[in-house]
Amino acid sequence: MKTLSDLLLLGDPRLYEICTPIVLEEKPLVTAWVADLHNVMQEVRAKYGFGRAIAAPQLGIMKRLIYMNIEKPVVFINPELVNLSEELFELWDDCMSFPNLLVKVKRHQSLTIKYIDENWQPQEWVMEDSLSELLQHEYDHLNGVLCTMRAIDDKSFKWR
């Protein structure tokens, strides 16, 4: 079982890698990966007081997998973002991989996420506002992009 000490931190080269899709033969591995993601997210919540979702590469699992747990757990396998709105909004973004740093970024107001769920069924979900922002952040992790790379300008950083 992975723990908080397994969480990759800012500067780890693996955080900048593009993740590979999960193939059907890897489906049996997803349950353990999700358990690890859940465990580490709970530890981040306990220590830092935030955490709504986590991407697999943050634990060195270089697969296209996102775990979100706000009101209930949701597993996003091989997600794809489509129908990103033209409307953008600014916010102070945070990240488990650098928990004391906030970064001001612009995100799309709404989007549609297409994904495979843990039962290997295709799903689609239209998201707006804070959910849209959250999934853009996690999706970026799958492509080796950190919110530090999306900062609005060189003054868009502050300590929590």
Structural summary, described in words:
The strands form two sheets. This protein has a five-stranded antiparallel sheet with strand order 1-2-3-6-7. Strands 4-5-8 form a three-stranded antiparallel sheet. The chain is of the alpha+beta class. The protein contains two helices and eight strands, in the order αβββββββαβ. It has one domain: Peptide deformylase (Peptide Deformylase, Alpha-Beta Complex). It starts with 26 loop residues before the first helix and ends with a strand. It has helices spanning 27-48, 129-142, and strands at residues 53-55, 65-69, 73-82, 88-93, 101-108, 110-116, 122-128, 157-159. The mean pLDDT is 97.
